[in-house]
């Protein structure tokens, strides 16, 4: 029997969930939550005080005692929006580690979105059916509002907006309670208006929401797992006439939730109006539960990879890429990567990173053909896609940057800014991509079959072409230089596969 734990340092509280895996299912053993308004300081001052640090340590020490009680060895502890923005995050996390033993990582927004999405797939029995009609998923947190849109099995839009309830309270901290509602509505309206301009016009039929504040709203006005537009409109009108103290008293809420109820309710109301959907389907799913499910291997990683790949092709289409060429180069790159497994010392994740770099390597042509490898780097660097972290995107962009003649150089900032280990990864994968691109130099998919054999100190590329492959053979010789240097082996191209 395996026991797992997940800890989430949020903007408004610290949460922990403990669960055990029994007969392939997860059973929650215990949930703990303590109010701690890290966001109150970070959203305004961009740093955490020693008092906030000591309070965090105090709570985590309580969590540590639970670790001893349940004999927990496998856990994941993450910090989200409140810690992402602070200037002294390294000091803060190091002190937490020294005092409590917890290694807390700052989770990327993209990974947070990915885990939540996978949680939806696992927790909603008819999710795939809903997805056919299109789904908008919105989570209003204390710091950010996360919005994703998907249809069938593709996430085609994802954004994070800094208008969470606590962040709004901090941004408007100088506004009196009397005028807060009016100021808050204008603030939210402005940000949602900007979001609307970038949202695709694809109609979606279903609105799914989760999170602590929506759970409170649902308990007050919901029913049958839905919150209707008319009910939330009526509820918001009631809230407008109450002070924070009255909200806490009337709905029996702690103060850390009472002051966030008004802005959170308004945000959900505005998103319903934006989408034209008449109800929110509530999913009672916490982020710590998503973390544990992933830790325990409950998520279908292949399913998520499939979604990422479809989204990646959609991005290529956006930039009018040569899909046939991109897919051919990707196919060849994957064959080379797999054949070199005994010598490249790279992971499955690196394989997928190469796959995306190969798919997108030419999208810079959308800007201009001349120097398009540099334009590809720029476009890829600015891609946001759930499931891909900022470091992942940077690796992909840099690999694509070196698919042409240019070699990585010390004065290339995009290369030298990477960690030493990542530079090695980029160089290895760029070397593979250059060869793959050379073998479809004519963009004609003339290469029919390829087999790579490792024979001592030589990699022999056995190839068959559907028609003449003289252009590909010539460019193979031109672009093999990086491959030779990186892998330290001879390369031989042989026509005809026995």
Looking at CATH, which topology of the largest domain would you report?
A: Hypothetical protein af1432
Instruction: Assign the CATH class of the largest domain.
Output: Mainly Alpha
Strand order of the largest sheet: 8-7-6-9-11-10
Total separate domains: 3
Named at the architecture level, the CATH assignment of the largest domain is: Orthogonal Bundle
Average pLDDT reading = 89
Number of helical segments with 4 or more residues: 23
The class by helix and strand makeup works out as: alpha/beta
Gap between N and C termini: 52 Å
Low-confidence stretches: none
User: What's the total number of strands?
Assistant: 14
CATH superfamily of the largest domain: Hypothetical protein af1432
Summarize this structure briefly.
The chain is built from 23 helices and 14 strands. It is an alpha/beta fold and 498 residues long.
Please describe what this structure looks like:
It is built from 23 helices and 14 strands. The chain is of the alpha/beta class. The chain has 3 domains: 2-107, Nucleotidyltransferase, domain 5, CATH 3.30.420.40; 125-282, Exopolyphosphatase. Domain 2 (Nucleotidyltransferase, domain 5); 301-495, Hypothetical protein af1432 (Orthogonal Bundle). Strands 8-7-6-9-11-10 form a 6-stranded mixed β-sheet. The longest helix has 22 residues, at 177-198. The radius of gyration is 26 Å and the shape is elongated.
Helices and strands, with pairings:
Layout: E1 2-9, E2 13-22, E3 25-35, H1 38-45, H2 50-70, E4 74-79, H3 81-84, H4 89-100, E5 104-106, H5 109-123, H6 127-132, E6 135-140, E7 145-151, E8 154-161, H7 165-171, H8 177-198, E9 206-210, H9 212-221, E10 226-228, H10 229-240, H11 244-250, H12 255-275, E11 279-282, H13 287-295, H14 301-318, H15 323-339, H16 341-344, H17 348-360, H18 372-381, H19 390-401, H20 413-416, H21 420-438, E12 447-455, E13 458-465, H22 470-479, H23 481-487, E14 490-495
Parallel strand pairs: 1-4, 4-5, 6-9, 9-11, 13-14
Antiparallel strand pairs: 1-2, 2-3, 6-7, 7-8, 10-11, 12-13
Helix pairs in contact: 1-7, 2-4, 5-13, 7-12, 8-12, 9-12, 10-12, 11-12, 15-17, 15-21, 17-19, 17-21, 18-19, 19-21, 21-22, 21-23
């Amino acid at each position: 029997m395996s026991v797992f734990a997940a800890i989430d340092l949020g903007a408004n509280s610290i949460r922990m969930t403990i669960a055990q895996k029994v007969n392939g299912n997860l059973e929650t053993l215990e949930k703990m939550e303590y109010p701690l308004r890290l966001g109150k300081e970070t959203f305004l001052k961009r740093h955490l005080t020693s008092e906030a640090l000591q309070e965090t340590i105090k709570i985590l020490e309580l969590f540590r005692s639970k670790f001893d009680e349940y004999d927990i060895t496998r856990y994941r502890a993450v910090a989200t929006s409140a810690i992402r923005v602070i200037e002294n995050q390294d000091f803060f996390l190091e002190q937490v580690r020294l005092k409590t033993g917890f290694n807390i990582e700052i989770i990327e927004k993209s990974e947070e979105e990915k885990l939540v999405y996978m949680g939806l797939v696992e927790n909603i029995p008819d999710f795939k059916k809903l997805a056919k009609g299109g789904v908008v998923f919105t989570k209003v947190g204390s710091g950010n509002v996360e919005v994703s849109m998907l249809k069938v099995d593709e996430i085609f839009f994802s954004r994070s907006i800094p208008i969470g309830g606590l962040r709004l309270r901090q941004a408007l901290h100088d506004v009196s309670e009397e005028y807060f509602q009016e100021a808050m509505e204008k603030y939210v309206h402005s940000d949602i208006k900007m979001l609307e301009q970038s949202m695709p016009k694809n109609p979606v039929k279903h609105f799914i929401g989760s999170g602590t504040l929506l759970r409170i709203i649902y308990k007050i006005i919901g029913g049958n797992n839905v919150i209707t537009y008319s009910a939330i409109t009526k509820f918001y009108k009631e809230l407008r006439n109450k002070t924070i103290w009255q909200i806490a008293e009337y709905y029996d809420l702690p103060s850390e939730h009472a002051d966030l109820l008004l802005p959170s309710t308004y945000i959900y109301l505005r998103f319903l109006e934006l989408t034209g959907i008449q109800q929110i389907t509530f999913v009672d799913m916490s982020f710590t539960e998503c973390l544990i499910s992933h830790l325990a291997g409950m998520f279908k990683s292949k399913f998520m990879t499939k979604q990422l790949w479809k989204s990646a092709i959609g991005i290529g289409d956006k930039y009018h890429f040569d899909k046939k060429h991109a897919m051919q180069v990707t196919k060849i790159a994957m064959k080379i990567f797999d054949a070199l497994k005994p010598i490249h010392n790279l992971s499955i994740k690196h394989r997928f990173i190469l796959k995306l770099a190969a798919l997108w390597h030419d999208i810079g042509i959308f800007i201009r053909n001349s120097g398009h490898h540099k334009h590809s780097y720029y476009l890829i660097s600015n891609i946001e896609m759930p499931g891909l972290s900022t470091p992942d995107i940077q690796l992909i962009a840099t690999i694509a940057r070196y698919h042409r003649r240019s070699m990585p150089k010390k004065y290339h900032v995009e290369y030298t800014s990477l960690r030493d280990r990542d530079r090695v990864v980029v160089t290895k994968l760029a070397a593979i991509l250059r060869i793959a691109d050379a073998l479809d130099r004519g963009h004609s998919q003339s290469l029919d079959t390829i087999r790579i054999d490792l024979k001592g100190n030589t990699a022999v590329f056995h190839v068959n072409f559907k028609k003449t492959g003289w252009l590909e053979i010539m460019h193979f010789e031109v672009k093999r230089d990086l491959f030779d240097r990186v892998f330290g082996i001879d390369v031989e191209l042989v026509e005809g596969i026995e």
